[in-house]
Structure of Leucine-binding protein domain-containing protein:
Amino acid sequence: MRRRVPAAEVLLAAALLVGSAACGSRLPESDFEGRGTAPAPVGGAPLRVGIITSATSPVGGSAFTGPRDGARAYFDRINARGGIGGRKVDVRTCDDGGSGVGNNDCVHKLVEEQQVVALVATASLDYAGASRVSHARVPDIGGQSIGSAYDTYPHLYGIYGSLAPRNGKPGWDGKLYGGTEVYRYFKREQGARTAAVVSYNQAASAAYARLVTRGLKAEGYRVVTEQVDFALPNFRAAAADLKEQGADLVFDAMDTHGNAQLCEAMDDVGAKVTAKVTNVQNWTSSVAEDYKDAPRCRNALWATGSSRNYEDTGHPAVREFRAGMKAAGKGDALSQWQLEGWAAAMWFTDAAKSCAGGAGGDVTRACVDRFINRGRPYSARGLLLPVNFEHLAEPPRTRRTCLSVARWQDGKGWVTRGGDMNDNCFDVPQLSYQP
């Protein structure tokens, strides 16, 4: 269970800040009874997989597309090499528009009508159809855990793993748990002692800020909280105060636009910090453009996550990822979410190869599901921290957790810090929170 609170939930909070996603009404369970259990076609027929993405949503057209693009690039590469056991991968994509209604439509289309053998690299703002995917016993492999679906339902396997029972309720009795490893890292490795948490005066943003504050205090930080008005934010006042308070670190519960404005204000008032900490969703090559008016703050940006830095070209799996993205025409616009989508597609491919001894035989939903749920960690050739899925009756009080860390530097991009991610580990408490 590596619930990446500083990654997934902050994205969801940011989405809610920009605008409310359509809630949508769910279709009755009876509409799906007795359907979706057939195996994928066998023989020489293509292996059909689905990718659901909120490609158009209230948070913008590119916020969720990274996993999809990475997965498609991987499948293109596999198909160029002859497919899986001689069978090509037929990728079916669906844009759910960031709404619950749209997500249910995508699930119905891909799972029920087109009979995909699996979903891969899901990235949905409102995964309203998750229970239907689980009910149809369709493995959903390597999805981004925006919300709590991947800690709620069986047959759903998020990119960061889960130890939760997954019996239809989120986490343990409705509570999820996350570690304090990010805060421990900056305390131990960077000597940080005072942290500022900046949020909007909006419910989702404020709730996430409280969670970050709780984690920081558990690690012994002095915490300075700054809240700005969502409609008319005064970032300059917040920046001036965090400078006055001597903050070493700055965390936030805001969208990318708000982050860029905060960084500009920090540069304007001369606020110098050890790190302006962001998350894996903002770990992209577009930083120079996104933060073009804040050079000092831009070069203090740090990102943390659970996957290997896409800039680590000394690693063979990273080199293959970059070559695949270049072949797909996206070599100049890379992101960590693309790498994680690539890893998700690799995960499905390894599962499909395991079916019928890799001979391209009986690749069914059940066979793929058994491979993913076999109780052995998966690392996608070293691209991911080993991902586990267990069903613990009680949440762990503490857990040894590792993390990947990188810092942005102009002219170099994201530079890995803290050594290899598999060795950058901490025994930290697990704190509960409501999804």
User: Anything to note?
Assistant: The chain is about 35% helix and 20% strand. The first helix runs from residue 5 to 18. Confidence is low (pLDDT under 50) at residues 1-43. Residues 179-309+398-433 form a domain with the Rossmann fold fold (CATH 3.40.50.2300).
